[in-house]
Structure prediction request, 287 residues.
Amino acid sequence: MLLRILAATVAGGIVFYAVGFVLFAMILDPMLKPYMNQFPGMLKEPMPDMIFLPLWNLTMAGLFAVVFDRWATIRTFVGGLKGGLIMMPFMILIVDLQYAAFTHIFKVPVAFIVDLIAATALGTLAAGVVGLVLGLMNKESTA
Amino acid sequence: MLVRILAATVAGGIAIFVLGFVIYGLVLDPYMKANMVQYAGLIKDPPGWVALVSANLANALLFAFVFDYWAGIRTFVGGLKGGAIIMFLIALTLDLQFLAFMNLWKGDAVLPIIADLVGATVLGALAGGVIGLVLGLMNKNSAN
Prediction:
């Protein structure tokens, strides 16, 4: 079980990292910046921390892998997609609503909504890969 | 199922709000503030209550859905364990996101992050326990 969860976490983490880079860093970053307040010195620029970024991606995938393997018994790509589509909006809402509650980071709701939609798409895809790998590893262990 | 999840969500949301105020608002706040870089205009004081209550309800709904639909958790102890696992991972993702993108901590961030993880895990465990308990009570009611 541990090996299966670890493999699914690594695969899902790679999807979060690669697709997240394209979606957020390349496409959405220039669009979202005008809708967010800037606090000089707060953001790590020009690059984020490249140790903690992949660790963050792995932890997100790890959360899916634990829930899917331990409780939801999701073992397919489509099952993972559905599970991700259910869980990811809640996870983003928990984080973004806390930003909205405690900080002035979001200037207007547009940034909040775009982030919610994009992160849901990203998380759903990563969760699909987590489900797929859990299924493949499960077959191997029963074969 | 829907009524059961909604009832557990409301109970869990109240638990997260109250426990969150005690753990983060009273116990950890002075320590966290002393260890964080202060950016002018960043923090909302007082917080936005609608967003805060909505965040707590979203958190409780995620727990209630996972417990009821997938995990079949129907007890306080079951919820305690499930809540601790999920909340620890959510808090870890949030802390790693901060470390990846923001200069939030003064100097070494290890101890404040450990404090945050412990606080969040205790909060998640107790709120998860309440959610598991309510799911169990509502399940008994619907079976009678």
